[in-house]
Structures are given as C-alpha cells and as structure tokens.
Design brief:
The complex is a heterodimer of chains A (about 170) and B (about 400). Chain A is α/β, with parallel strands linked by helices and about 170 residues long. Chain A contains 5 helices and 7 strands. Chain A has a 5-stranded mixed beta sheet with strand order 1-2-5-4-3. In chain A, strands 6-7 form a two-stranded parallel ribbon. Chain A is elongated and about 50 Å long. Helix content of chain B is about 50%, strand content about 15%. Chain B has 15 helices and 9 strands. In chain B, the strands form 3 sheets. In chain B, strands 2-1-8-9 form a 4-stranded mixed beta sheet. A 3-stranded antiparallel beta sheet of chain B has the order 5-6-7. In chain B, α14 packs across α15. The longest helix of chain B is centred in the N-terminal third of the chain and has 29 residues, at about 75-105. Chain B starts with a strand and ends in a 9-residue tail after the last helix. The chains are: A alpha/beta (about 170), B alpha+beta (about 400).
Chain lengths: ~170, ~400
C-alpha cells in the first residue's frame, strides 16, 4: 500500500467519525475526533499496522487534548489522533484495553494532566510521587508550583504502590 | 550506571510468574521546563535526558522544530549530524556489550568492550569538543563544523576502531558459553513486540524491521548505503547480535558521510517560529526517540513532549520475563538496554508461600554469575581462548 492510499482509506472509511482532518504535509496527518469516537479510530489505526509511538496530552482551556501518534513505519507517515477530553470530567475510553503498549502512556497523561481513561486495566499512579496531593496536575496551564506543592506534604515511608499491588494479589 | 528502578517479580520457586515495574524515582520534569525555555535552549536541556543518547534527543528536537518551521538543514550539517549520531551508536552498543558481559560474570567481555569504546569517545571529543553531551545540533543546522582538513585523520581513527570491533564481535558470537547462556531466554515474540509497540534493537531482535533512519530518513541517512539488521529469535542473544552487527553499519555510514561531505553552509536558522505543530523522531541506540512540539508563535513552546525509547520498551519486560528463571531476570532487563541500566533492587514475592523479600543488585548479580558457572560445568565447555 502507498502512503496516499492509506490516508485516503482512513478518510473514507472513518468519514463519519472524524471531526477534522489536516494533512500538514505528506508525512504528517492530524485527525480530530470527539471523545465517543476515539476508541474506534484508535482501533482502526492499530489494526491497520500503526505503531503507537506515544500520546501527548495538551491542556487546551476547555478540554484536555490527547494526541495519539501512530507511526506507519514502512509507509513513512505519522497519523495523529487528537481526542478531546472535555473538562471537568476529562473522560476518554482507554486505548490500553486494545493493546498493552498504551498502558504506561495513558497513565502518564492521567498523572500529569488529569485526563481519565475509562476501563483502563491498571489505573494506578505511575510518575507522580505517592505523597503528591490528589487533583493537582503539574502539566496543566493553571498549575502553580508554590501554591500547589510547597505547603508541607506528608511523606509516606513505605513502597507505596508496589505494596498495594502485593496486597491485592494476596487477597 | 546505577539508577533507581523498582521491579516487583512474583515467583513460584525459581520461576517468574508475574512482574510489575515502578519507575519515575528521578522524574526531572523536563517537559514542564521546556515550556519556559526558548527554542534555542531546548536541545541543550533535552541532551541531558541521557548522557549516552545525548545526540539522539537533540536530533529529534531538530527534526521536530524543522517540521514545525517547514525548513531543512543544509547538506553539510546533515552529514555532520549523521556522523555524530553513528559515533554515539557505536559507543552506546559497546557499552551495552560490556554490561551484558558483566551481568553474566564474563568480565573479559566487559573489559574488552569498554576498552574499545574509549577511542570512539576520543573521536567524539575530536569532532565536537566533548566525549558526551556534544551540544552540536540546533534548529536549522549544527553549531560546529568539522574542519575539512581534519577528515583524513578522523577516517583513520574510524578504520582503527573497525579491527578490534571485528575481533570482539567474532569472539562474542562464537563463544560457546555465551551461546548457551543467552539463547532462548527472555524471548519477546514478534506479536508481543507489536502489541507492546517496542522500538529499536528490542524490536529488531524480534523480527520487526523498524528503523527510523530507513523509514523516515533524516540527517544524511538517505544519501548513504547501509542495511537494517534484524534477527528472528527475539531472545537476549538475538538482541546482542543486532547491536554488534549494527556497529558495522554505523562505521559504514560514517565512512561514506566523511567521503561524500562537501564544504558549505552548516546553518539555516529561520527568523521566527510560526504557530503550529511539529513531530520529529530519531533512531537512538536504544530505539526511537519521539518528540512533539506545539507552538503559538511566541518564543516559548505551548507544549513540548519528549518520549525516550525505554519508556515503550520497558513495559515489554513483562512479556519477556514471565516464565524465566530468577537468575536471568536481570539479564532480560539489561537486554532492553534500559536507560537507567541497573535495577537498584528487586522485590520478590513468592506467590505460593506468601514470602516477600527484597533482592539487591548484588544478589541478582551473584545468582546470574552462579548460573553461568553451573552451565559451564554442566556442559563441560570451556570459554574460548581470546587472543588480541
């Protein structure tokens, strides 16, 4: 398959799911989708040979934009799905239910930007410290370090999440 | 090379039945920091993501920003970029070979690999002024040209590296102990490789021919001849073979670049940064580095995303370690060449007896060394005699 064939195919077969398509150049295509179509579009791209390079979360005032970047390596094109997670709930269907490669990537966005991924197989914290306050997201635009963090945190001495997992398995 | 990482392994006897990874003990908040840096400062900060990949991240920054600005660097700058990236790949792969040798108690490999890494680092210093952290890549070109009259001397150094490299590669690939010890452990199947979205030598060792240098040629990779190395087995040995053979391709690339390079401009910096977004990726020694930038037309990016290769390779540890022996666990982690190369400690939970304990790196090393010794005894083989 050729690069433009793939892009054409994506545009026609997903026509009713895409809110916007921008072909910035032949190698970079950006698809914008509403939250209810995110999972279907992601599944389509993964099943047609896309490799999820990573996802970027961007704070856009009224929503968190989660950009899933799919590389189609042999075709030399990167297709980005921009899924909007509207505030205040910021909910999206989890792509990690389709393949495990999205697991860490979505947990990172959950920690740093506060997007919520529904049905995520393992929604524990990944990057933030155990004693980081709930509901404070360091990559949001309204985050201020002094106001949110330098207020004296309680420090938990144990291994935090690792401990929790072993307790779960034992139960 | 001791960096913190927490692996929790669930074992039944000596077999690993499940695994969990905990990371980010040293999260440095670089993406947040990038939002308050100018576009000229970003490559300097992101070079500090890793001391070993200190050319790959700035390379991806340059690719992303050039995609954003719709410009290209001049040809001479592209050749210089490729040369530095490949020198980095050689020294990084040699570093890995040495560490892998150390982990199985084969310290001869460790000593030799690191000894032959030294001249490569010296060469880096000659070209860029630094052994690591080259600070040479920028938006639109490179900061420092290679003087044309220095090229014969550099070529000589590159040729001098090749001979000991051949000797080392042969010795490693033909060694009976290494072959018995590394084959068939930590297998990552092609299907799992795809599901975990792995990149770099971890993918190429599992028969996935992914290489950004070929798939989306940047720098000078389109103008020189070289091959993508893949291996079908997916075990630790396959990954070792991929890395060792790749160093030859790197030498091939460097040699062609030095020969083809013509005098000319090395910088094509734009006057301003337009609003929009850009994606750039580059093939680091450990896999693909992926960068995304969004600009609103001011001096600072709205969002800068940098994803290092280990972040996608590490989760695949779960697929390759389950079913392995505890003595091999450390080697399987090392086979991915994770950026925080050593696991500081590992927690072990025996799921039948509900015993929890923490094994330090020393314990794991000892277990790994003992297994090598057992194998040597069991098979009655002797390590091949190594001649210089």
């Amino acid at each position: 398959m050729k690069r433009n064939q793939l892009v054409q195919q994506v545009k026609t077969e997903l026509a009713d799911r895409l809110a916007d398509v921008v072909e910035r150049n032949a190698k970079r295509v950006y698809l914008t989708v509403e939250p209810e179509h995110s999972l279907a579009v992601n599944r389509y791209l993964f099943e047609h040979g896309g490799r999820l390079a990573t996802a970027t979360g961007v704070d856009c005032r009224d929503w968190i934009e989660v950009c899933y970047h799919y590389c189609f390596d042999p075709l030399n094109v990167v297709i980005t799905v921009k899924a909007k997670a509207y505030k205040p709930a910021c909910e999206l269907d989890s792509v990690a239910t389709l393949f495990p490669g999205a697991n860490f990537i979505e947990r990172e966005i959950q920690d740093l930007l506060g997007a919520r991924f529904l049905n995520h197989p393992d929604p524990r914290r990944l990057l933030l410290a155990d004693d980081w306050p709930e509901g404070v997201y360091p990559l949001r635009k309204d985050y201020h370090h002094e106001a949110h963090v330098n207020t004296g945190r309680a420090v938990s001495p144990d291994h935090g999440r690792a401990r929790v997992l072993s307790a779960l398995r034992r139960g | 090379m001791e960096e913190p990482e927490f692996f929790q392994l669930f074992v039944e006897g000596e077999r690993v039945v499940d695994a969990d990874v905990r990371l980010s003990y040293n999260h440095r908040g670089m993406e947040k920091r990038c939002e308050s840096l100018t576009y000229d400062q970003i490559p300097l900060l992101l070079a500090r993501i890793c001391g070993i990949c200190s050319a790959s991240h700035p390379m991806a920054v340059a690719n992303a920003l050039e995609d954003l600005c719709r410009i290209e660097a001049p040809p001479r700058a592209q050749y210089i970029r490729a040369i530095i990236c490949e020198l980095e790949r050689i020294h990084s792969h040699l570093l890995w070979v040495g560490l892998a040798g150390h982990f199985i108690g084969y310290n001869t490999v460790f000593m030799w690999a690191w000894r032959y890494r030294e001249p490569v680092l010296d060469l880096c210093e000659k070209i860029t002024g630094n052994r690591n952290h080259y600070e040479n890549f920028k938006l639109g070109g490179v900061r420092r040209d290679i003087p044309q009259e220095a090229i014969p001397e550099i070529l000589e150094c590159v040729n001098a590296v090749e001979k000991p490299l051949t000797m080392l590669t042969k010795a490693v690939l033909d060694d009976p102990v290494l072959s018995v010890r590394l084959r068939g452990i930590g297998v990552l199947s092609e299907e799992n490789g795809r599901r975990y979205c792995v990149t770099g030598p971890t993918a190429r060792g599992s028969n996935l021919p992914i290489d950004v240098r070929r798939d989306e040629p940047y720098a000078a990779y389109d103008w020189v001849k070289w091959d993508v190395i893949t291996q079908p087995q997916g075990d630790v040995f396959a990954k070792a073979v991929v890395r060792l053979l790749e160093t030859y391709e790197s030498i091939k690339i460097i040699r062609q670049c030095l020969e083809k390079m013509e005098p000319g401009e090395t910088d094509n910096e734009p006057r301003s940064i337009p609003p929009g977004e850009g994606i750039g990726h580059a093939e680091a020694p450990r896999g693909e580095t992926f960068h995304y930038v969004r600009s609103d037309g001011t001096n600072y990016p709205l969002r800068y995303k940098a994803r290092a290769p280990t972040y996608v390779n590490l989760p695949s540890f779960k697929a390759s370690v389950v079913g392995a022996e505890l003595a091999d666990a450390m080697l399987i982690v090392a086979a991915m060449d994770p950026c925080y190369s050593c696991t500081e400690r590992m927690a072990v939970v025996d799921s039948r007896r509900h015993i929890e304990g923490v094994l330090t790196m020393k314990d794991l090393l000892r277990m790994s060394h003992e297994k090598t010794a057992r194998l040597i005894q069991h098979h009655g083989i002797h390590p091949a005699e190594w001649k210089c």
